[in-house]
Amino acid sequence: xxxxxxxxxxxxxxxxxxxxxxxxxxxxxxxxxxxxxxxxxxxxxxxxxxxxxxxxxxxxxxxxxxxxxxxxxxxxxxxxxxxxxxxxxxxxxxxxxxxxxxxxxxxxxxxxxxxxxxxxxxxxxxxxxxxxxxxxxxxxxxxxxxxxxxxxxxxxxxxxxxxxxxxxxxxxxxxxxxxxxxxxxxxxxxxxxxxxxxxxxxxxxxxxxxxxxxxxxxxxxx
Length: 222
Ligand code: C5J
Hints:
Layout: E1 2-3, E2 10-11, E3 17-22, H1 26-29, H2 34-37, H3 43-46, H4 49-62, E4 65-71, H5 82-86, E5 97-98, E6 101-102, E7 124-128, H6 139-145, E8 150-156, H7 158-171, E9 175-184, H8 188-203, E10 207-209, H9 211-218
Parallel strand pairs: 3-4, 3-8, 4-7, 8-9, 9-10
Antiparallel strand pairs: 1-2, 5-6
The structure holds dicarbonimidic diamide (C5J).
């Protein structure tokens, strides 16, 4: 199928493609969570949920593989480097008890994916200790076993975990598409710059498109 995209149309075959949804977790998106406690306007991130839901529904209906990621650490923080935990001067550090349980710890309420985009049976859920979805997760091996060559990205935040994951995927040989209205940052100018740099120079990291373009491409497959 062909999706109208930047810098030129994106070709993929559903049987060899996966939808990768990065870190749509309560602590980043819901009011009263970790993201808001850091002074961020989470309404910016919440606003992409309907577009993400529409794509997820269409992708599921078409029978495509879905991967969800969570930025999550083990309860004993053995997978959290001190450099990550000690950086900056936040109110709560990773592992501290925040408004929705321990910050970025697997299994805590705030660490869950928001109900609107909750994984269903058969979908892959990856807990990742880093920003990128490929670092220390086994995701590449899982995708290779499934014969996946193309990845469509959604999620948050655009310039941190989404961009890192897309760059990691590009280096591993995947053709990557980012859905512009299904990703967001707490800093709109960072999102704009990220979208532009990913598809610049002839698609140096990959392609970007609107969810509407992908939905139009998916329509005949459903
Ligand atoms: C993500 C972050 N998911 N901004 N994390 O982007 O720290």
